[in-house]
Structure formats: structure tokens, C-alpha cells
Amino acid sequence: MAGDPVIALGRAFLIETTSGTGALLPAMLPFDKLPEFVRGFADTPLFRAGQENQMRVGGLARRRSES
């Protein structure tokens, strides 16, 4: 799949529309920058999960107060 031109074009499109044309791919990063990249990548889903949890808790509290 890595040699598939459609996949390569789609990947390039997503990266350029999200981060701009000068974005570095993870494989292009220097080794000393990878831990920082991975930490930032891991922080994003954790942040989103926290938001989802706050919305869920808020919704449950509203339902209880309406009952």
C-alpha cells in the first residue's frame, strides 16, 4: 500500500491542507524531535476524551435535575 500512488496523493493532500505545504512528516523528523511529536499526538486524543467526558457528565447532571 505504501507504493500506491492514490494513497500517496491522498496522504500528501491531507497533510498539506491540515498543516501547510512545508509540513514535515514523522519519518522526516530528526530522532530527537520524535518523543515531542509522539507526546503531542497522544495528548490530542486524551484532550478529546476529556471533553467528551465533561459533556457526558454535564448531560447526566441535567437529566437528573430535570427528573
UniProtKB/TrEMBL annotation:
Top-level taxon of the source organism: Bacteria
The identity of this protein, by name, is: Uncharacterized protein
Instruction: Look up and give the organism this protein is from.
Output: Halosaccharopolyspora lacisalsi
Output the lineage of the source organism. Answer: Bacteria, Bacillati, Actinomycetota, Actinomycetes, Pseudonocardiales
